[in-house]
Structures
1.
Amino acid sequence: MNTVDLLLALLGRKSITPDDGGILELVASYLDEYEPIWFNKNGVKNLFLTRKFQDEGIHFCFAGHVDVVPPGDGWNTDPFVPRVEDGVIYARGAQDMKSGVAAMTTALKQASDFQGRLSLLLTSDEEGDAVDGTQAVLEHLRDINLLPDYSIVAEPTCEVKFGDAIKVGRRGSVNGTVWIEGRQGHVAYPEKSLNPVDILAPRLSLLSGAKLDSGDEVFAPSQIVVTDIRGGMEVTNVTPSSVKLMFNIRNSTKTTIEDIRLYIEDIFDNTQFRLELKQSAFPFVTKSDSLIASTLIDSINSLCHVVPKCSTAGGTSDARFIANYGIEVVEFGVKNDRIHGANECVAIEDVEALHGVFCNVISNLDKASK
Ligand SMILES: [Zn+2]
């Protein structure tokens, strides 16, 4: 079975998160040279396939998810019956990320030798809570001393054309709420009350859109994005007792939650306020001159004649859990312009090119570790 045939088989499986739709069994039987380690937790199925070629060397692991988001409305044809038209495959998961799963799997099938160990980590819990998936498998791998050294997650990363972008990390996410306290009063006697809007007004420009660092070659500046401001009783004759302001910061590795706290506390110094900050994801980055990133960039460059940009844009992915263990991890996959939408689709030539890049990465890692 070639990559496109495998992809069509995967797309035909209805694997709405956290259901794997039988895909994990299918991949396990396809990669029958690899030892399967099944890891099921709270009804979520995960599969780790591994093959030791040499005692010495490196452990490289492809990773990804087989689950998809529900199809929603607006499809021209059944989202779980792949339709091929003019070299394009239409189905839910075509970009996110069954094309990646197919390309990783066939690249591993083709590997005949490797200086070390090759593995594949698949979960069916990425689009859901992502608690019993990759995170749980990594804990188990740590316990049995089988954590990989390097990893590529085949999430869709390309922007305009195949090969133009890889992800070398992700930004973190910090949610914040600040309550500015005043004293309610009659609008005709503003001197007798303390209007929290007056407190906020001159400070708002220091908050909304404020950049807390200047970013670097892979991270955009960490910016305060205000999402909500409310206070008062929706009347014109009473000034409010408090105003609540909510915001989010997608932070780079240059700005921590403590930096954010100090910045905001300084702005509201000498006023009555309360601040709550919560970090829902931590930023991480794998250097572009690391072995895994440079190998991937070289492979893309030599096969596609494009130098991919190293990006950290977008939401979160399971790569953050892998990075937590100190594993060098990058992400590369097909174009990301139709994910989670109706009539999600992928070009067949991009799927084949992805397979080619992955085969090339395996052989270059092999050479590098000899
Ligand atoms: Zn995905």
2.
Amino acid sequence: MQNSFYVNTKLIGLIGHPIKQSYSPFIHNVAAQLKNIDFIYLPFDVVSDDLENALKGVVALGIRGLNVTIPHKEKIIKYLDELSEDAAMIGAVNTIVNEHGKLKGYNTDINGLLESLTEFKDFITGSKVCVIGTGGGARAVIYTLIRYFKPEQITIINRTIQRADTLHSYFSEKMRFDNFKTADLFPPDLIETFHSSELIVNSTPVGMFPDVDDSPTDLTESFHKDQLVFDMIYNPTETKLLNLAKQQGAATLGGLKMLVYQAAKSFELWTGEELPVENLSDSLELMITS
Ligand SMILES: NC(=O)c1ccc[n+]([C@@H]2O[C@H](COP(=O)([O-])OP(=O)(O)OC[C@H]3O[C@@H](n4cnc5c(N)ncnc54)[C@H](OP(=O)(O)O)[C@@H]3O)[C@@H](O)[C@H]2O)c1
């Protein structure tokens, strides 16, 4: 509910680069309207060199909070005053709350991941998992899997293999999970890893709108029917990766549910209100697919 002069309106924002692909402004602005609360959510395209100044602006202007998206989820940490326990373990932040001038970082991607993956818990527990990517999304998924799903083994695949090694060491130390492997994003290493994994997670932006014909690597004969392939990308709702996995018999899961539930937790942190999840999931899907 915005009064006509916006004198009591609270501002929330999104910072990332690029941000045009984001549906977060739609989600949070519609949610605020449905809940009849006086919040506005705006996207800000901010490059890495401007992060510190952008956060000074948040404090100076009394902005209530921010979402943080690619590629800033890790770099932003050094400019925050405090971190939630989960965000500190993960080493990535997707939500900032401004509490009277002190900026606290949270990671609500965990909430989105839990809602998305819980129905597959029995399948994932004790299984072999591979995660493609090493950014903020990959960190959240590795943390969530180890903490809540207890897989037997996690293989981290990345274009830059040194980053996979760094992440492996980070989580081995932080979470005392030793059964990590790393693998190249190229055959034959990759195909072998795919074939032996029950859960495959894409945590790279490859295949995201507008470059929907891209896939992280050559994916012919990569999947089989005893697998779940999860792409964290939500636009398009079915990426090329998911389409190929489905054609080869695997079960598939897109990133839309994760998007809605990470947003729900962020919305609650900023406003103290529940996000109307059902209404938003339907209208989001309609908007993306139309
Ligand atoms: N559904 C949701 O709610 C949700 C939540 C979080 C994230 N996501 C999605 O997950 C994806 C990753 O997000 P993020 O925050 O983790 O991003 P990020 O921090 O920018 O991570 C980038 C990762 O992708 C890899 N990568 C980038 N371009 C590549 C290319 N052309 N070929 C191969 N690998 C490439 C990078 O490899 P290098 O290390 O070699 O550079 C790095 O490992 C995005 O699409 C994001 O929208 C969705």
